[in-house]
């Protein structure tokens, strides 16, 4: 990681966090969609069919009511009309049963099939009884009672509808439990992913901070020592990123400054030596000038003495 440049490193880190956040969002959205689908399924497979079962129970009761009306009918035409109604109700029940079997559990499908068989048997027994019952009373009360098997079939038919309804309630309850479990699992997974993302973000932030500030502290320390006059300090960071380039540039600058100061020191020593030599020469010149002045003074004195002697000789000559 230390040889990766800081810019790409930061970009990669933020992209990684963005990818984790996107994954968390996608997972949460997908989980919510599953929960929503489970709710829809529960409504379509549970709530709606329960209303259908209520209608089916009413239809089964209507079968038994129409069977009683058949017994109380005063004419054959009325009985035939009631038989047609019974067939129509039975067809509606069978149609409903076939539709509900598609979304029913195994237990519910068996109960629904039993309802279909019992309603068919109930209609068959009524028609069988109708073939032998040909008498009518003036009061509308049929003198030919139904066989006990027909009454028993009717009771079983009612119980079968109740059993099918109970099976549907159990399936709806299971769907509700599954939806709740899915929702809870989604919440738990979202919390775990959130914690992981936060921890990764913190760790990644700490790592990036240390990877940037640590070499910066070395570079700043080197600059501070150079500021105080120590040109021998070197950061010596072996990195391939911008901080490594800065460190190498700073080390190069330190080397150049050290070389410049060394040359200046040598030049200063040379200049001092030259100045000392010049001073010695100046002293020699001054001494020579002083000797020359002394000699000039002696010559002038001698010349003056000669001039005096000449004047004396001239005066004597006169």
The top-level CATH class of the largest domain is Mainly Alpha
Q: What are the segments in which pLDDT stays under 50 over at least 5 consecutive residues?
A: none
Count of β-strands: 0
Mean pLDDT: 76
Number of helices: 5
Rg (C-alpha, Å): 61 Å
Element-level helix/strand string:
HHHHH
Q: Helix content range of the residues, please?
A: over 70%
Beta-strand level of the residues, as a percent range?
A: under 5%
In the CATH hierarchy, the third-tier topology of the largest domain is known as: Four Helix Bundle (Hemerythrin (Met), subunit A)
The biggest sheet amounts to:
none
Structural class: mainly alpha
Number of domains: 2
Q: What is the correct CATH architecture of the largest domain?
A: Up-down Bundle
Shape: rod-shaped
Distance between the termini: 122 Å
Topology of this protein?
Blueprint: H1 6-72, H2 76-101, H3 106-132, H4 148-227, H5 242-317
């Amino acid at each position: 990681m230390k040889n990766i440049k800081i810019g790409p490193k930061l970009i990669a880190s933020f992209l990684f966090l963005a990818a984790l956040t996107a994954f968390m969002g996608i997972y949460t959205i997908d989980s919510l969609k599953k929960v929503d689908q489970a709710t829809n399924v529960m409504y379509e497979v549970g709530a709606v069919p329960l209303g259908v079962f209520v209608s089916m129970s009413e239809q089964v009761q209507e079968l038994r009511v129409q069977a009683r009306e058949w017994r109380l009918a005063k004419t054959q035409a009325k009985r035939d009309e009631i038989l047609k109604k019974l067939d129509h109700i039975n067809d509606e029940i069978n149609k409903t049963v076939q539709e509900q079997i598609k979304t029913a559990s195994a237990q519910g499908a068996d109960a629904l099939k039993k309802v279909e068989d019992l309603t068919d048997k109930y209609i068959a027994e009524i028609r069988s009884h109708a073939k032998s019952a040909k008498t009518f009373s003036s009061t509308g009360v049929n003198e030919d009672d139904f066989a006990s098997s027909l009454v028993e079939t009717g009771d079983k038919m009612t119980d079968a509808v109740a059993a099918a309804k109970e099976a549907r309630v159990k399936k709806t309850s299971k769907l509700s439990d599954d939806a709740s479990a899915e929702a809870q699992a989604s919440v738990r997974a979202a919390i775990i992913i959130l914690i992981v993302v936060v921890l990764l973000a913190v760790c990644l932030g700490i790592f990036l901070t240390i990877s940037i500030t640590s070499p910066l502290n070395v570079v700043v320390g080197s600059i501070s020592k150079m500021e105080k006059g120590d040109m021998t300090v070197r950061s010596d960071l072996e990195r391939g990123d911008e901080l490594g380039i800065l460190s190498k540039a700073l080390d190069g600058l330190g080397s150049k400054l050290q070389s410049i100061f060394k040359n200046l020191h040598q030049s200063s020593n040379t200049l001092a030596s030259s100045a000392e030599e010049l001073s010695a020469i100046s002293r020699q010149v001054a001494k020579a000038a002083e000797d020359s002045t002394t000699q000039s003074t002696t010559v002038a004195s001698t010349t003056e003495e000669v001039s005096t002697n000449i004047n004396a000789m001239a005066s004597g000559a006169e």
